[in-house]
Amino acid sequence: MSKTIRIGTRGSKLALWQAHFTQDRLREAGIDSELIVIKTQGDRIQHLSFDKMEGKGFFTKEIEEALLRDEIDVAVHSMKDLPTNSPEGLCITAVSYREDPADWLVIRKEKADAQKPLLLPDAAVIGTSSARRKAQMLDLRPDIQIKDIRGNVPTRLGKLRDGHFDAILLAAAGLTRLEISLSEFEVVRFSPREFIPAPAQGVLAWQAREADKPTRRLLKQVHQSAVAELTNLERKVLNLLDGGCQMPLGVYCEKDGEGNFHVWAALANGWDQPVRRCRLSQSTKHGLPERVIEALR
Ligand SMILES: NCc1[nH]cc(CCC(=O)O)c1CC(=O)O
């Protein structure tokens, strides 16, 4: 018999889905757990665009602090929201399967224009607060207008429905996990090789105290090491650039049946600056992140 693992999570619908998913995986491994909901800066400050907020890790800081204070044993994060350097004393112990890593462009049906690229009318108003999505969208359609949008996934869809935007960009992972019907909208489902996702998009990270060996041993039972190999590569590129989740950087990695690694990356100096792209392949992962940085220069 092991003790009950305390899982710390944000309170949004998607975060709770992720926490329940964690509980299910642990239960399968015979491990009992309970949920502890924690509010973060990212949940409280919903009116500011991310580029107007200071620092990194808006969705993760308070949960990491609870972990350090021993109020929880495991923190569940969307891995893409997690800065590449864990605070002193904490580490990412395990990662989940990868949900579809793509971004989807969700368009109001009455605005969709089948004659135009990406089904967008001229000068379409696109809602996104992500510098990465802004830069890649402007690269594809320089005529569009960008407007910031905040709030959780259902809130954003509500704002689209209410006509504040012609289209918005969302992670396929969030929409799929919440089983949100998009039948009232037109949807452009980008390939992650074309519209490059955030490093580790679609993957959950399970964080624990470095010194808490019993919890870390339990988490290893649900760890997906093949996923970690790819997300570690993606996050290494972010780390080498000294970037956070507001950097206009997309990195996406696949490993093929022969064991070769393929990386697609896109980087801009700012959200309204030109996008530089690269696609690299090699048979080992060694030195690949460094080559990506070189190619994006
Ligand atoms: N930044 C918010 C956030 N963090 C994780 C997801 C979706 C799940 C994932 O990508 O793992 C989202 C919503 C979105 O980007 O549309």
Automatic annotation (TrEMBL):
Pfam families given in the database record: Porphobil_deam
List the SUPFAM superfamilies hit by this protein, alphabetically.
Periplasmic binding protein-like II (SSF53850), Porphobilinogen deaminase (hydroxymethylbilane synthase), C-terminal domain (SSF54782)
Per the record, GO CC terms? cytoplasm
Which pathway does it take part in? Answer: Porphyrin-containing compound metabolism; protoporphyrin-IX biosynthesis; coproporphyrinogen-III from 5-aminolevulinate: step 2/4
Query: Which residue range or ranges hold the Porphobilinogen deaminase N-terminal domain?
Result: 5-215
* Cofactor mode of binding and number, as noted: Binds 1 dipyrromethane group covalently.
Q: Which GO terms describe its molecular function?
A: hydroxymethylbilane synthase activity
Q: Which reaction does it catalyse?
A: 4 porphobilinogen + H2O = hydroxymethylbilane + 4 NH4(+)
EC number(s) reported in the record = 2.5.1.61
User: Top EC class per UniProt?
Assistant: transferase
Residues annotated with S-(dipyrrolylmethanemethyl)cysteine modification:
C245
Q: Which HAMAP family match?
A: Porphobil_deam (MF_00260)
NCBIfam families attached here? hemC
The protein depicted here goes by the name: Porphobilinogen deaminase
Q: Which organism is it from?
A: Phaeodactylibacter luteus
Gene name of this polypeptide: hemC
